[in-house]
Structures are given as structure tokens and as C-alpha cells.
Amino acid sequence: xxxxxxxxxxxxxxxxxxxxxxxxxxxxxxxxxxxxxxxxxxxxxxxxxxxxxxxxxxxxxxxxxxxxxxxxxxxxxxxxxxxxxxxxxxxxxxxxxxxxxxxxxxxxxxxxxxxxxxxxxxxxxxxxxxxxxxxxxxxxxxxxxxxxxxxxxxxxxxxxxxxxxxxxxxxxxxxxxxxxxxxxxxxxxxxxxxxxxxxxxxxxxxxxxxxxxxxxxxxxxxxxxxxxxxxxxxxxxxxxxxxxxxxxxxxxxxxxxxxxxxxxxxxxxxxxxxxxxxxxxxxxxxxxxxx
Length: 291
Description:
46% of the residues lie in helices and 7% in strands. It is built from 14 helices and 5 strands. A 5-stranded parallel beta sheet has the order 2-3-1-4-5, sandwiched between helices. Strand 2, helix 2 and strand 3 form a beta-alpha-beta unit. The relative contact order is 0.15.
């Protein structure tokens, strides 16, 4: 076992955004032979209120004890790192502990992201069973703030500079995975000859299918049973869900009024984001509605 003093610090981070395909990106990048990622996604060290405690830092560093010495990039992914202003000054904390790591930020249509975020949190019991999406939007500002991507990028630019973050668009990843992954590899200064990226990605479950997985997997707690459950087909999980009263929490549907409220909530930020990314975000339905 390597001593704590000899353990490497991560030199790149996937910093979000939540419910935007970060797990898919994490898994795809992790297939590159020069990239090492721990099994545990979402350690969330830099948003932990106790991040300065020595034991917290030691536990975080131990995540990387299995990293091979020949790995060029050692990283982790925690979507909570782009939830400003709700979880402290995350960029400053990263700078203090890691210096200037490479930063990758994956974005999705902001309204779809917020709705998916709400559904995920609802099924985890974060919201009461009788809440509506409108009430969640009105009372839980993090749903909109996490979709204000320009604001999140500004927070990192203030610490690391304007071009420090490599932005991935989820919808581009689905449509042209090879080009998107090659661009990420280029940002990480990896040779294009080092790895053959796929022209197509594995089938991605819909938000509702993921919701079923959350409910069923949640009954199994942690450990081996939960890891095995991840391999169970979604059709089987649907059947399990229909038979168990403990997983009958129905997700409140998003209304046109909810979509309008979310759209207005991110409108100003989208103008600023368009100045940064240009037509790359024109494929988002939210941008179309505001045009």
C-alpha cells in the first residue's frame, strides 16, 4: 500500500454540470490508456463543509492510491463543483489544493437539465411527495443557478483565467462522440494516435428510465447488491418498481408554465453564454424559445 505522502493528487477534474451526461463522459474518458479515474464518481471533496480538515483531505487523496505511476492524467468528477453560489468558493478551494488542474465542464440544455435535476432529487426524497415543480423552482434556487452556465464559468475564470475550462456540449457528444472526445483529449494534450474513440455511444437511458433505476437501486443501499443491480435491464427494474410499494413515488410532470419559468430564469445567463460559445448552443430548445 502506498503511503499517503506518495499518493498523487488529481491533475484534472470534470466539474459538472449535474444531470448533463458527466457519467457518460467520465466512463468514455476513462477508457483512454493514459487517463486514470477512481471507481467512485462524485467524491465532492471541494464542496464538503469539512474540506479543510486533515482527515477529509487524507480520505480524498486515498481515492487515488490505485493510480498507476505511468498515468498521464489522474482525475475525478463531481458535478457539485459547478453549483455556485451554494457550496462555497469551489474554484478557490481547487486552486489551493491542486494548483492549476485541467477542468472539463459538460453542459446540456439548461431547462432540460433543471427538470432532470428536480426529478433526480425528488426520487431521492430531497423534496416532499406533494411538491410541484413550480414550487421547487420558486423555493430552491439551486435548480436554476446550476443551469446558469455562464455564471459558473465566470467563477472559474476569476480564479483560473478565461480559457481554463474546456466545455463539452452533451448534445454534441451524443451526435458526434468521436469529434467531441478527440477535442477533450487534445485539451488534455494527448496524442490523437493514442486511442481510437468510438463513432457511436452506448444507448443512453431516458430521464424516466434513470428515475426507475434510482428508485430500485436505492432500496439496495451500498455494496455488492447495488453494483449488481446496475447491470439489471431497465425492463426488469420497471417490473420490480411496479410490484414494490416503496418505490411508487410519481414524479410531478413539468407543465408549460414550469418550462416558461425555467426559461426566463436562465435567459439572461444564456445571452452571456452565447457570447462565450456562440452557435454551439443554438441546438438547445431553450435557445430556440428565446430567439
